[in-house]
């Protein structure tokens, strides 16, 4: 047997009403379980919640601004930790561009959030993601030796950008090289390297030369070990890996991150 209680309350002086299970403040026809109608100007507080020490912790103004530890929020949401021992906002990782696990996220369209000098958070306009055909191709890749494998397609007018990072596994035992570079490509300029570097495994004399700047074929050529090659050909950005000493293909891994195709 279920018990039900219907409270009918009217306190007109303080404008509190309750009927048929709904509770209203400043409204005699509450349409939800708790219905608060604010009064006053834009900066009147419609709701205030304080802690046990009567310190205001949550504020909702009549103009819709909400504050956490902010008694007079001047934005839609104003957060002030009140201490330097914790962050203002923490978002636990639910997915990554490398994993691409969440089917509800479009990993091909991202725009960064930026903060101005006053702490206002806005979505930055970004040419890389402004077009519906833009995409990213972050991930971990294993080459198939001398056979080209595709990173992404290239459309008319596309600009490409990515950072590549390999490990010491790139190369024979004792002569491997870790390679790093930030790369862009456009149809008029070819590949451009904005920064690059490398490190050695056990052999500290193995040199790396980056060849093909300004062309459509970019080669990370090591003195001993594997050459990693990127090329724009046949409407695609492709890669392959060739042992520089034997000319045969190898199948070792590398990572791509901070990637984009503008359109």
How would you explain this protein's 3D organization?
The chain is mostly beta strands and 263 residues long. It has 2 domains: 9-79, no CATH class; 139-261, Immunoglobulin-like. It has no helices and 20 strands. The chain has strands spanning 9-11, 16-19, 22-25, 34-36, 45-50, 56-61, 66-68, 77-79, 113-115, 121-123, 139-142, 149-153, 159-166, 177-186, 190-200, 208-211, 217-222, 226-233, 236-243, 253-261. It has a 5-stranded antiparallel sheet with strand order 11-20-13-14-15, with no helix packed on it. Strands 12-19-18-17-16 form a 5-stranded antiparallel sheet, with no helix packed on it. It has a 4-stranded mixed sheet with strand order 1-2-3-4, with no helix packed on it. Strand 6 and strand 7 (66-68) form a beta hairpin. The chain starts with 8 loop residues before the first strand and ends with a strand. The model is unreliable at 1-8 (pLDDT under 50).
